[in-house]
Amino acid sequence: MPTKKAVWPLGWEDGYRAGRQEGRRLGTCEAISRQLRFEAPVLELRVLYVRTGLWSYDPLDQGIIDALRQLVREVHVAVPTDDTVALAASVRPDLVLSLNSVECLSVAKVDAIRGMGIRTAVWFTDDPYFIDATKHIAPHYDYVFTLEEACVPVYRELGCANVAHVPFGANTAYYLPKRTEARFEADICFIGSAFVNRAAFFDRIASYLQRKKVFIAGYWWERMANFPMLAGQIRNGQWVSPEETASFYNRAKIVINLHRSIDDETNQNVGGIPALSVNPRSFEIGACGAFQLTDVRHSLGAAFAPGEEIATYASPEELIEKADYYLNHEEERQTIALRGYARTMREHTYPRRVRQLLVTVFG
User: Fold this and answer.
1) What are 299-335's pLDDT values in tens digits?
2) Is 102's pLDDT higher than 90?
3) In whole angstroms, what is the distance from residue 122 CA to residue 165 CA?
4) pTM of the model
């Protein structure tokens, strides 16, 4: 006798299919993570790490601290308001490393630490946007590390002998593939501040986004001329925690990345030093196993293979075209997302970045 086809209650079949696909995605990510787990010998070094002291940089600070604890024998942590000079004199570290935005750790303290014969290094977080400030800080350190490759020659011209481009990475304690609640679901997601270029760009795609399930969050989105059109889908003027950001990335079908412009009114970059390198958000999206649709930076190809590990757009019109395509080609979208995740785990995590930094200093 012919068997009867199962009758699913309304919505159950779609839910079952979605759950199965999500389980497969998470299982594949777990297999990739195990295969690409980073291991390195512990170095016989003592490092004093000085945090930014800024709450917004906590995921970066913590990612670096966790990586140091994995890579070196002894780690001490301070904040800029601590008596870091006395601490350095007591601990006698092999290296004092400062994560720095705009003089988080005073240069007077850095000079005093160097005066004791202790190596110092700075890792700049906001190049090239605040280069007018950081160019006065860099010469006070023995080693200068920047996330922006275009700033390397600038610091060398200032007399800094040891300068290297070391991008930030993904803090995989926060940004990782995970199962999330349905309330985080979106067709398209963007989390970040509405710098002028971003507000103008989203104005041009607002009518398209209005027809999709969208989540946008960050500061200054009221700048958009078409803000009322999307107001119900924008969490404006609110900071989204790293944990919640990762939940939205995991649940979104498409995560947009749109880099900040070098001529934004909030910048301190009078010389117009270009921004060639990708932002840390590129790696955070990748670490969630999410599908990323990004604008193109000069050095994007050094981080991800466009069309294979990440998707790109060069205009609002192309973003709409690509978004429509990938929303309707799920298998292709998932394949690119998983390749991007594998590339992130292979190259763009903090243990790998910090190891690169330590090798630059100690050989």
Assistant:
1) 999 999 999 999 999 999 999 999 999 999 999 999 9
2) no
3) 12
4) 0.93
The dotted CATH code for 43-168+349-362 is 3.40.50.2300
Task: Please name the helix (run of DSSP H) or strand (run of DSSP E) that holds residue 312, with its range, or none.
Answer: strand 311-313
141-178 burial string, b = 16+ CB within 10 Å, else e?
bbbbbbbbbbbbebbeeeebeebbbbbbbbbbebbbbe
Task: Work out the average pLDDT over 47-56.
Answer: 94
Helix (H) or strand (E) holding 252: strand 252-257
Outline where DSSP puts E strands in 58-171.
72-78, 95-100, 120-124, 143-146, 162-165
Of 108, 116, 43, the closest CA to residue 74 belongs to 43
pLDDT digits (tens, 9 = 90+) for 283-301: 999 999 999 999 999 999 9
For the record, the structure tokens of 62 come out as 């913590």
Instruction: Return the domain boundaries, the chain.
Output: 43-168+349-362, 182-347
Give the burial class of 11: count Cβ atoms within 10 A of its Cβ; 0-12 exposed, 13-18 middle, 19 or more buried. Answer: exposed
B/e letters for 240-268, b = 16+ CB within 10 Å, e = fewer, are bebebbbbbbbbbbbbbbbbbbbeeeebe
**What's the pLDDT score for residue 16?**
45
Q: How many CA atoms lie within 13 A of 21 on its CB side?
A: 15
CATH superfamily to which 182-347 belongs: Glycogen Phosphorylase B; (3.40.50.2000)
Distance CA 107, CA 122 (A): 11
CA distance 204 to 69: 46
Residues 322, 313: Cα–Cα separation, whole Å: 7
Coarse DSSP helix, strand, coil percentages of the chain, rounded to the nearest 5 percent: 45, 20, 35
In degrees, rounded to 5, the angle at the alpha carbon of residue 232 between the alpha carbons of residues 227 and 237 is: 65
Helix/strand number for the chain, H first, E second = 14, 12
User: Given this chain, do its domains 43-168+349-362 and 182-347 carry the same CATH topology?
Assistant: yes
Rounded mean pLDDT, 17-24: 75
User: What's the one-letter identity of residue 57?
Assistant: Y
